[in-house]
Automatic annotation (TrEMBL):
This is histidine kinase. Keywords: ATP-binding, Kinase, Nucleotide-binding, Phosphoprotein, Transferase. Its EC number is 2.7.13.3. GO terms for molecular function: ATP binding; protein histidine kinase activity. It holds the Pfam family HWE_HK. PANTHER family: HISTIDINE KINASE, TWO-COMPONENT SYSTEM SENSOR PROTEIN. It comes from Methylobacterium mesophilicum SR1.6/6. Residues 34-113 form the Signal transduction histidine kinase HWE region domain. It catalyses: ATP + protein L-histidine = ADP + protein N-phospho-L-histidine.
Amino acid sequence: MTDPDDVAGQLAALRADNARLRRLLDEAGMPDSLRHGVRNTMAMLRTIVRRSAESAGDVEAYAAHLDGRLHALTRIQATTDAFGEANLHTLISDELLFHLVREGERATIDGPHVRLRPKAALVLALAVHELTSNGVEHGFLALPQGRVTVSWRVEPSSPEPTLVLTWKEEGGTGVTKPAQRGFGTALLEDMLAYEIDARSALTYEPDGLRCTLLIPLATWIGRLVEPAAAHGAGDDRD
């Protein structure tokens, strides 16, 4: 079980880092719109670099994991730069495909049309990257029978609706909770809470991990789009 004092300390460190970065950008006199985007991206990069170093066993592992995480951010950043937001389905399918996990073969992806604002897209892309890369390196996706189902729904709630997203792995064997808390777990349990007010639940089932995320669908995080208006923002589906 996660130590509440440890989590509180980590969240306080993240807030302190972001406060220092905000002061630097304010002193530079950068325009508000550009300053906001740069602050979000730079704060995310600082956190990734620091947390990757803390959880790496050696220099080679650190370099490999950091490279993968930065590539995931670069891919989604290109989408949000072009469209101003990202399609949730495309975000997930692109990350899986980057790891050679194809929708319709070893992956099932299902949910309504949801578009994410840049900050939420960045952190969720990183979360999907961690789940996928961990599955490839250590878990179910290293096995020929391994599959993953990613589904989501939007539930009405107050003061804003809630995006309920579930990542469910199948085909693994002897899955147990890791002895040490690594970058991926810290991201899912701490960074998502700090960055987008998400709540997470990780369940280590015998054949794979189940991860459930509850994300408030506030306007600064994303929006549900009616099917007739769901084209664009990286959405190339019919």
